[in-house]
Amino acid sequence: MVAYAGWNMPTHYTSITEEHNAIRNAVGITDISHMGRLRFEGPGASVFLAETLTRRVADLALGQIRYSLVTNDQGGILDDVLVGRYHNAYGQPYYVLVVNAGNRAKIVRWIDQHLPPERANRHGEEIIWDDVSCLWSMFAIQGPRSVELLQPLVDVDLNVMRYYRGAQVRILHPAAQRQGGIISRTGYTGEDGFELVLGVDIARAVWETLYDLGQPFGIVPTGIGCRDTLRLEAGMPLYGHELTEQINPYQADLAFACHLSGYDFPGRDALREIKKQSLKAMRVGLELDGRRVAREGAAILLDGNKVGEVTSGTFSPTLQKPIAMGYLRTDLAEPGTNLMVDIRGRQQSAVVVPLPFYRRPTKGGKK
Amino acid sequence: MNPEELLYAKTHEWVHVAADDAGSKIVTVGLSSFALEALTDLVFLDLPDVGREVRAAEPFGEVESVKAVSDLYSPVNGEIVDVNQKLVDNLENLPKDPYGIGWLAKIKVTDESGLANLMDYPTYKKQCEEEA
C-alpha cells in the first residue's frame, strides 16, 4: 500500500507486470476513487466551465467528454481534467469534471475564487456545483475484454459507445436498486476500456460482481503501480511529473487542449503570448539501452552538458526496455537524437523516440 | 539456508556468517523475501567486482524493479570474494529462492563490528510487520 493524496492505495495486488499484462491482453479493474469528481449544473454551468477550462465546453454534445487543462493566469498548468456532459434521469444537463486527486483541493479553491455567490446566483445563469468525490466511487475497467465484462451491468450498448463518450446509465445490479451511474469509454492505460462512476454505498458489491464475472476473461484487480507503467507506455503525462504550474501546455505537447479564440479563461492571454515564442524545452519520449531505469530527476546529457531532465521513467513491461519521459532542449527533441542519461552517477545511452511508446492494435476502423 | 537462522540488516539484506579454511570470517549476503515482495518485478541487478573493498552500511550494488531502485548495503567492512554473477541474467531466481540460489555476494570480513548492528530473525520479522 502507498499513501497518495490522503488515500491509501495498493501499488499492486499480484505484481505490477502481471497486472500490466492483464490490462494489455485481457481486463483489469482499478479502484480510482481517489480521483476528484466535481458536478456542475444549472443554466450558467456551461459558460462557467468554458471560462475555466482551456478547451471548448459550450459545444459538448450529450455524452461527450473532452480532455482539458486548467491554467493559472501565467498559463502554467494547474491540473489536467476530463469534462463530460450528461443528462440526469429527468433530462436535465449536468457536467462532471474529473480532476487529479492531488489537485482536488486546489481546484475546488480555484473554482470558489472564480465563482462567488453573486456569480453563481446571477438570475437566469445560476450554477450549482459540488465536490462529490466522497459520494461517488470510480473504477477503471480497462483491457480488450472490458466491453464483454461490463455489458451485463449497464443498460446502454457499450459496443457502439465511442472513445471519449459516456452516458448516465442504470446499473443493473441487485445492490443498485434504481441507482444510476456514469460510464465512459475513457482511461489512462492506452488500452480500450471504461471508467465507471457509481455510488460509494454500492461500489463494493459491484466490484465483487465484476471480479466474479471477470474470471472467465482473466480479470485481475490492478493497483496504481501498473496504472503508471501503462500510462507511461501510452505517452500520457502525469500531473506532478510532466505537468506542473511551471510547465505550459505547449511545452507539454498539449496544444490540442488549448482553444484560444473562444471564451476567455484564466491564462488565455498568457498562452497567446507563449504560443508566439519558441519553446526552450519540450516533452519527449526516451528509450534507453540496458535495463537500468532513468527515473524522475535524472539529467539528460549531450557531450556531458545537461540538456534536459527526466520527469518519469520505468521499465516497460510491453517493450521490455527502459522508457522515460522528460523535458529536453527543443533543438534536440527530434526523434532519433542520441543522448546520454545520468542514472545515479552512471551514464546510459538513450534515444529520443516519438510518443506514445505503445499504441494498441486497432480493430476494424474503431478508434 | 534457513531464514530463521540468519542475521538481518535494517535495509533488508540477510547475512550468513561462516569461516573459510584459513579461519577468516566470510559473510554471504542476500535480500530478504520481505524486500523482494515489496520490490516485485525485478529488472536489473548490479553486483560489484570480486576484489572490491566494501564498507559497512555503504552500498556495494543495486537492485532495480519496475517500481523502484534500491541500493544493496554491505553489513561489514571487507573485501568481495565472490558474487553470484549467474543471477544477473536469471533474475527470476532471486525471488524464487532468496535464501539459496538467490544469494548475492560473499565478503571476507576485515572488521566485523558491523555485525553487531544486525538483527536476529524475530527482531527483523517485527520490523517487517511494522513496515507492512
Describe the structure.
The complex is a heterodimer of chains A (367) and B (132). The model of chain A has no long low-confidence stretch (mean pLDDT 96). Chain A contains eight helices and 19 strands. Chain A is α+β, with helices and mostly antiparallel strands. By secondary structure, chain B is an alpha+beta fold. The two termini of chain B are 24 Å apart. Chain B has one domain: Beta Barrel (OB fold (Dihydrolipoamide Acetyltransferase, E2P)), CATH 2.40.50.100. In chain B, 20% of the residues lie in helices and 37% in strands.
Strand numbers in spatial order across the main sheet of chain A: 10-11-12-9-3-13
The CATH topology of chain B is OB fold (Dihydrolipoamide Acetyltransferase, E2P)
- Overall tally of domains of chain B: 1
CA gyration radius of chain A, whole angstroms: 21 Å
How many strands, what sense, and barrel or not for the largest sheet of chain B?
6 strands, antiparallel
Report the β-strand fraction of chain B as a percent range: 35-45%
Give the % helix of chain A: 10-25%
Distance N to C terminus of chain B: 24 Å
C-alpha Rg of chain B, in Å? 14 Å
Number of helices of chain A: 8
The top-level CATH class of chain B is: Mainly Beta
Q: Beta fraction of the residues of chain A?
A: 25-35%
Mean pLDDT of chain B: 95
Q: Spatial order of the strands in the main sheet of chain B?
A: 1-2-3-9-8-5
- According to DSSP, the number of beta strands of chain A is 19
The percentage helix of chain B is 10-25%
Order of helices and strands of chain B: EEEHEEEEEHHEH
Envelope shape of chain B: globular
